[in-house]
Design goal:
103 residues; 2 domains; two-stranded antiparallel ribbon; mainly alpha
Length: 103
């Protein structure tokens, strides 16, 4: 899979989830009423919406990236040779039959 495809698989769903989560969060909470460590936020409502959206987008992107990371096959993770016949494997492949080919 190409790198650009993986980025699309990660960023697009997380963008959609961030939009919905941002709308739901700020429907329930007013940015003027938010406090951090006992002090009110000294930023405008638009800034709070923007920061909230990007924070939720990063959270969603990290979840999507973790999903892409965990769906890799064992051959991708371990660098195993994809060739089934041991004789046809290239030199240096750890599963080749002749012992002198191992690194």
């Amino acid at each position: 899979m190409e790198r650009s495809q993986k980025l699309i698989y990660i960023l697009w769903p997380s963008f959609l989830v961030a939009g919905v989560a941002d709308a739901l969060f700020f429907t329930a909470f007013d940015p003027a009423d938010l406090h951090l460590f006992g002090d009110r936020f000294a930023i405008s409502g638009t800034s709070a919406y923007t920061i909230g959206f990007f924070a939720l987008w990063v959270l969603g992107a990290s979840a999507s990236a973790l999903t892409c990371f965990l769906q890799r096959s064992s051959a991708e993770v371990n660098g195993m040779c994809p060739i089934a016949d041991a004789v046809d494997r290239p030199p240096g492949c750890p599963r080749r039959e002749d012992t002198g080919a191992c690194r």
